[in-house]
Design a protein that fits this description.
By secondary structure, this protein is of the alpha/beta class. It is built from 12 helices and 8 strands. The chain is globular, with a radius of gyration of 22 Å.
Length: 376
């Protein structure tokens, strides 16, 4: 049992510390030689799938149509997924021939909307965006500059960033975003990132494959499919989608639980991605995505066996079981003892522990939900 506990702890350490440290150190001396700093002028389509976005749709359309790029080369395709507010009327109010609106009579979900939008797009490059965030002015130049003639770029992700609120940034989930940024930037320098930010990424249209309409994580499945033949997935921190940070752990719980549900969906539908040489990005996918799914189960096994060994009088395992138990309970305790979240370091630690709790909820959702995707 002690050997199993050690294996579980090694797996957890590798997942959250070992792999990030490895890719960071390995990438430090590698230049971004795949990036070309020329600014090509070519027609680019922008695709958004929206549903009940009346609060943000006007701001987002104005943002896109006024990007720093040749205006006549921007083509905006909006797929409305049966909104029941005034989203459609606000879109029609622009009366701009650069906008193509596709309406769904019945709500079918974002993945179905992406499939429908791609059917009418014939440009070489497509920028996929969400409706809520405002994107940086040079995003079309920054992302399209990667797709130079003869390159093997499948997709390039921008960065989701949070604006300051009341002069400060929340620490918890935003610290996790910074942690993720370091990993993704390092992976992009070495080979490929196993996924992109759904809020902002550019894709080669000819590498797009229609996806199942119940897909939760289109921003992982689409680029992974596009990179199947060796084309790589990049990350460009110059291209930014600005969002508002959340201090609402309950909202983060719903969002992350759905995301982790989507990771389980992808894992079981694409198990070959975990097999060496079956997908060019298999190592990053297993280390970055799959190990995150496995980590809470390793923790449960380690705690259970440590408690059993502690009852046999092992001082080492008494300390270990107490330490692991306290760590695992940080998140539920923080819900009742608010002082825990007043300390910055404890709030960051609580957020990382919370993500593993959400992982278990995501697995439960994957097993028992009706699998029908809808807008939340």
């Amino acid at each position: 049992m002690s050997v199993v506990v050690c294996i579980c702890l090694i797996g957890i350490i590798y997942c959250f510390f070992g792999y990030p440290a490895f890719v960071y150190m390995y990438s430090k001396n590698r230049s971004s030689n795949r990036r070309q700093w020329q600014y090509p002028d070519k027609d680019i389509s922008v695709l958004m799938v929206v549903c009940n976005e009346s609060e943000s749709i006007q701001r987002k359309i104005s943002n896109i149509l006024n990007l720093n790029y040749e205006q006549t080369r921007i083509h905006l395709v909006i797929v409305d997924d049966a909104s029941d507010d005034n989203t459609v009327s606000l879109i029609n109010g622009f009366e701009d021939d650069r906008i193509t609106l596709i309406q769904s009579e019945n709500r079918q979900g974002k993945s179905s909307g992406i499939n429908r939008g791609m059917e009418v797009i014939n440009t070489e490059l497509v920028l996929l965006l969400d409706a809520r965030q405002v994107v940086s002015q040079n995003v079309l130049y920054d992302l399209s500059s990667w797709f130079y003639p003869g390159c093997r770029v499948a997709a390039v992700s921008g960065e989701l960033k949070f604006r300051k609120v009341d002069g400060s940034m929340p620490s918890g989930m935003d610290a996790y975003q910074k942690y993720e940024k370091i990993i993704r930037r390092s992976e992009a320098r070495i080979k490929s990132v196993p996924g992109v930010s759904g809020a902002i990424y550019m894709l080669r249209r000819d590498l797009f494959e229609p996806i199942p309409v119940d897909t939760i994580l289109d921003d992982v499945l689409i680029p992974m499919n596009a990179a199947r033949n060796g084309d790589w997935i990049g990350f460009d921190e110059r291209a930014i989608a600005w969002d508002i940070p959340s201090d609402d752990m309950e909202r983060e719980k719903r969002r992350k639980t759905r995301t982790l549900n989507g990771n389980y969906q992808l894992l079981f539908r694409n198990i070959s991605w975990c097999v060496p040489k079956q997908h060019p990005v298999w190592f990053s996918y297993v280390s970055h995505k799959v190990m995150r799914l496995v980590a809470p189960f390793l923790a449960i096994i380690a705690i259970t066996l440590s408690i059993i060994l502690a009852t046999e009088g092992s001082v080492l395992f008494i300390v270990l079981s107490l330490s692991l138990s306290i760590g695992v309970l940080m998140y539920p305790l923080s819900l009742y003892f608010k002082f825990i979240n007043k300390n910055k370091l404890m709030r960051i630690g609580t957020s990382f522990v919370a993500l593993n709790w959400f992982n278990l909820l995501g697995f439960t959702q994957f097993l028992f939900s009706d699998k029908k995707q809808s807008w939340k």
